[in-house]
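Human: If only I could read C-alpha cells as easily as an amino acid sequence. Take your time, and here it is.
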Amino acid sequence: DSGERMNLLGRMSFQVPAGMALTGCMLQFYRTVPAVVFWQWVNQSFNAVVNYTNRNAASAISPRQIAVAYVTATGTALATAVGLNLYTKRAPPLVARWVPFAAVAAANCVNIPMMRQQEIINGITVTDEDNNELGRSRRAAVKGITQVVVSRITMAAPGMIILPIIMERLEKFPFMKRIRLFHGPLQVLLCGGFLLFMVPAACALFPQRCSLALADLEPELRASIVAKHGDQVPYIYFNKGL
C-alpha cells in the first residue's frame, strides 16, 4: 500500500522460523503459570509486529492505538491462558496441553481487530475492477479483518491441536522418558513441519484482493457509486491485508 519495504520480523516468510520456536515453547512450557505468562507475552509481542506489518497500510494508526492494541491483546491471551491453566489442573493432561491454542485463538480475535481498528473506524479504500478508487468502506474493513482472523487461527490450529496428541502418546514410550531434555526441541521441529504447510495454506484461504457485492456496502457509499457509475460496478475490491 505504501511502497515501503516490510520489516523482516513481520513478513509471512518469517512465520515458519519464528512461529515454530514460539509455538513449540508454548506447547512445551504449559505446566506453570510463570512459564505460561512469559511465552504468551512473547508470542503476542511477535503477533503485534506481524499484525501491524500486514495491515492495510493505507489506513494510518497512531502509536497510542498500537499501544492499546498490544496491551489489550496481550492481556486477553494471558487471562485466557492463566485462567484455563488453573481451571484444567484436575483435567486430563491432554486438555491442559490445548490451553495454549485457546489463548492464541482468543488473542487473535482481539489483537488483529485492535491493531487494525483505524480501518474499522474510518473504512478502507475500495476500488472497481480496474483499480479506480470509489470511496472508503467500513464493511469492507470488517470483512477483510474477519477473514484474516480466520486465516490466523487456521494457521495455528493443526500444530497446536494435533501435536499435543502426538506428544501425549510419544511421552509414554520408555525412550522418550530417557530424553526429556529433547522434548522441547522435538516439539519446535514438529511445529515447523506443520507451519511449513499451514502458513501458505492459511494465507490462501481467502484472496488477497478481496471483493464485496455492491448491495452489501453502506447505503451512503452504495448510493454514491450508483449515482456515478450506474449498474456498471456490481462488486468493489480492496486489499484485506494478511
